[in-house]
Design brief:
Pfam families: ABC2_membrane. One of its GO terms (cellular component) is ATP-binding cassette (ABC) transporter complex. It contains eleven helices and no strands. It has about 260 residues and is an all-alpha fold. The longest helix is centred in the middle third of the chain and has 29 residues.
């Protein structure tokens, strides 16, 4: 359990990380809003208009419109961008903060959490953008949106567990950071980000289910766009897995942290 003092340190570091990311740029933190909008526009133009990709899923009232495709795609992009940012940055969470690591009283376990917290800021902004455009395109917001946190919280928990592991491995195995790119590419295309799982080949679906992005993306779309309840058994199973990954990730970090100062 994080103490109030450690939480304050974590909050300050997240705030510093977010502000430093946009420091000196013309639009400043406005890029946190512009980036998802530009990404959404490009993907919608290419897949929805140029290639004519349509979203065909049960319960999608407007599944043949480019606007609905954009919303469905953006739901997936939200989760993937968060996942990609945390995984790519967590490998350097300890290496890039050697000064903190060598301070005896500093709680270094919060350094990977800073990466996650910073990514959550962007996730929150993207969520706000999605809700606004959902209201504009569909004309209403489903009450099931109130269940959206049930799809987001376990996902963040699982990713945090992975972040602790990668932060530790990044200290001892510097090549780990080079492996993240291919892993993220595979994760993106082996997920229901561009098309529903039901539209994928039969042989591919079991592998897609194993992707940590699949359950949160599908159930988030269900409550936000499809106006349906999420799959409770899938969320329950995912939460259990996320909790185990988070606990094992933290345990792995604690077991390996003793040699950080010597290696760095």
């Amino acid at each position: 359990m994080i103490s109030q003092r450690d939480f304050q340190v974590l909050s300050n570091l997240v705030r510093r990380d977010v502000s430093s990311r946009f420091k000196g740029s013309f639009f400043g933190i406005g890029w946190a809003l512009l980036t998802p909008l530009l990404t959404l526009s490009v993907f919608t133009l290419m897949f929805g208009s140029v290639f004519g990709v349509k979203w065909a899923a049960a319960g999608a009232n407007q599944n043949h419109s480019v606007g609905f495709f954009a919303l469905a795609l953006f739901c997936g992009l939200m989760f993937f961008n968060f996942y990609a940012e945390v995984l790519s940055k967590s490998t350097g969470a300890i290496l890039n903060n050697a000064t903190f690591v060598k301070k005896i009283v500093f709680p270094i376990e919060i350094l990977p959490a800073v990466v996650t917290g910073s990514a959550m800021v962007q996730l929150g902004i993207s969520l706000a953008v999605l809700l606004v455009f959902t209201l504009i395109i569909t004309g209403s917001l489903s009450l099931y949106i109130l269940l959206a946190p049930l799809t987001i919280v376990p996902f963040v928990l699982l990713v945090q567990g992975i972040a602790w592991v990668l932060a530790s491995l990044g200290v001892y195995f510097r090549d780990i950071s080079q492996m993240i790119g291919p892993v993220l590419t595979a994760s993106m295309f082996l997920s229901p980000m561009f098309t529903p799982r039901t539209s994928m080949p039969e042989w591919l679906r079991p592998w897609v289910v194993l992707n940590p992005l699949t359950v949160p993306i599908e159930n988030f779309r269900a409550v936000v766009l499809m106006d349906t309840l999420p799959s409770w058994w899938a969320l329950a199973a995912y939460f259990c897995v996320a909790l185990i990954v988070a606990l094992l990730g933290r345990l792995f970090f604690e077991k390996t942290r003793g040699g950080f100062a010597d290696v760095i």
